[in-house]
Write a structure and sequence with these properties.
4 helices; mainly alpha
Length: about 190
């Protein structure tokens, strides 16, 4: 009886560690997102302030146009950088959460193996078939877990490569648009 109580206490501590580990990783990711958003807001306001100052100091007749341009959103490149950073934070969070869940699964798996071995040692002689069935069920569960883990990893890898490809394409479009804007702005100034 004492052995079972000790195992129950160990399982409770493991569950507590799991939930607090999971909560800690989620809070870390949330903290990174909040910090990124605050940094982006500070940078955006500083850019707007500088653009407004530059627009107000112009002596030409384009002051209204200059002010409108000063209030324009930050360049698409900055938006893409922000989106890339959010994707990196989300990917890191997903990886860390998967590690915490996998660690918990491994601990639970060890406890189940210990339980089956303990039952097998103390079971009557005619229960070998039931013990073999339990071991087979555990083997099947482990195989299913491994398959799901691999599928999840492939999905995350595919999503990351898709985000990278999208960001790269968007960067090329932004660069092309910036070059076109520069070419059209040069003749207008002359």
């Amino acid at each position: 009886m004492t052995d079972f109580q000790e195992q129950a206490a160990v399982a409770q501590r493991a569950n507590l560690d799991f939930f607090f580990g999971l909560a800690g990783k989620m809070l870390e990711g949330g903290e990174k997102l909040v910090r990124l958003n605050l940094d982006m807001a500070k940078t955006t306001f500083a850019d707007w302030y500088q653009r407004m100052q530059d627009g107000l100091t112009k002596k030409e007749g384009q002051e209204v146009t200059g002010l409108q341009n000063a209030l324009a959103l930050p360049s698409a490149e900055k938006v893409l950088t922000y989106e890339r950073q959010v994707a990196e934070i989300a990917s890191t969070m997903q990886t860390q959460l998967a590690e915490v869940v996998d660690t918990q699964y491994q601990q639970a798996n060890r406890q189940v193996h210990w339980f089956i071995e303990n039952v097998a040692r103390n079971a009557p002689v005619s229960s070998e078939a039931a013990i073999a069935f339990l071991k087979q069920v555990i083997t099947l569960a482990n195989t299913a877990h491994d398959s799901m883990h691999k599928a999840a990893k492939h999905t995350v890898d595919f999503a990351q490569s898709s985000v990278s490809a999208t960001m790269e394409t968007a960067s090329e479009v932004v660069e092309s648009a910036d070059q076109t804007a520069e070419k059209t702005a040069k003749p207008a100034k002359q």
